[in-house]
Amino acid sequence: MSTTWDWPGSRWWRIDLHAHSPASYDFKPETDRLAQDWSAWVIEELIQLAKEMKAADARGESLGLSPDELAFYDALEANDSAVKVLGEPTLQAIARELVETVRKNVTIDWTLRDNVRAQLRVLVKRILRKYGYPPDMQEKATKTVLEQAEVIMADLMG
Question: In terms of DSSP H, where are the helices of 13-79?
């Protein structure tokens, strides 16, 4: 499960046991395994997934970031020029401020209300400008941060 997911923000941990089981419609003959072999393969994948999750937790701890802060940090770090220009400490500060701002400014139905989304978008852009985030990537970073905020807040609210 070391696949890199093309999702906003932090790494996503996902496994769909049905979609890859011998009973699935999309199970390919070249990967066909006996049930016993398949079970062993699933267990190996779960162990690998657990190791990756543990490494991600350790990375967050080494940076001094909570899981939510790490998600925003990873979203911002995707821009190589931001890492070079700002450095880790500044990206950490931005991530912390983004989490605080998102938590203070979202409501239960914020994803459905355009005015709340627009206000949060403005706040995110202000934070990025405040810390000197490279202008060439601010729009993409803002979009990614808002997408990550939706995921984080969905986890908190439901």
Answer: 35-63, 67-77
